[in-house]
Amino acid sequence: MSVKKWFLFAAVLALAAYGFAQGQQRAHKSDGVRGDATSDCQSTFTSGTSLTYFQFCTTINGNVTEFQSPAGVEAIREGAYDEGYGICDYDTLTRYYDWADGGDSGNWLASVISQPGGPGTFPLKITRTTSDGVFTLTQSFTRTTTVPTVNFTMTLKNQTAVSKDYGLMRYADIDANNADGGDFNNEFDFDWDSAWGYNPGFNSHGVSLFTVPTNTTRFAFVQDTSDPPDPCGPVNNLPSSTPWFGDGSVGYDWNGTLGPHKSITINGGYRRF
User: Fold this and answer.
1) How far from chain centre, in Å, is Cα 137?
2) Strand ranges, E, within the chain
3) Which of 220, 125, 215 is nearest to 171 (CA)?
4) Helical H runs in 117-200?
5) Euclidean distance between CA atoms 199 and 186, whole angstroms
6) CATH number, domain at 43?
7) Strands (E) located in 17-80
């Protein structure tokens, strides 16, 4: 077993063993109080031309469901548009997630968008609170055009009067190079700060999910499936070894303890390479 894989298993061994007994629904429909999962673009941002072209979009719920760069080369909006975030309350093993086309957990209140200039403009902030009132997740988005990058900031707040052991996750079904021409197979690998999908070769491009280093317990991972991960079992679908070639996906997990009414802020993003 590789050192990377051993570390991931050691970090969450008990949780991975628990599994995700009830499974996740690919197209969950929640009631009128909660925000339904969607891959529809609420805001689209475009810059550059030809090789410098960069277009991405965000949904009303804060999913990044398009990443096109250079012009005509898509990495997310292929097949099922799966991208988003998950939270695990490790004290109760309650899961909260929204994976766009991958479905949501049905336990969110509707999103609140702060975007003074209207759709397609910055600043952009999206806030969601879980329907039980335990957590609030606030996301802010910006971009970098020199090396096409979607930058996100995620702030998770414990709204309760007791400490909470948490896991915060970001995931994307990377389908680089237009899903490798339609067969949906990419090369996947990861290191301490990022996980990525790409196709090797001349004029090929890939996308990495990365984090800005912090002292928070954290790790990147890849999956041997394109399906969304379990927020309480981030290592359940690791490939036997990496690099791994196939229809996979990437993720990042941050975890720790939040004191009463305390919050943690994570910075990261998606970058073309």
Assistant:
1) 13
2) 43-47, 54-58, 64-68, 82-89, 94-100, 112-114, 124-129, 135-144, 149-158, 164-172, 186-190, 194-198, 207-211, 217-223, 244-246, 249-258, 263-272
3) 220
4) 176-182
5) 5
6) 2.70.98
7) 43-47, 54-58, 64-68
Could you list the pLDDT tens digit for every one of the 273 residues in the chain?
343 433 433 444 344 434 443 344 343 333 333 458 999 999 999 999 999 999 999 999 999 999 999 999 999 999 999 999 999 999 999 999 999 999 999 999 999 999 999 999 999 999 999 999 999 999 999 999 999 999 999 999 999 999 999 999 999 999 999 999 999 999 999 999 999 999 988 778 999 999 999 889 999 999 999 999 999 999 999 999 999 999 999 999 999 999 999 999 999 999 999
The pair of three-digit structure tokens given for residue 249, joined into one six-digit string: 């996906």
SS3 at position 50: helix
**Domain total for the chain?**
1
Which residue has 């990365």 as its token pair? Answer: 210
Q: Which amino acid is at 48?
A: G
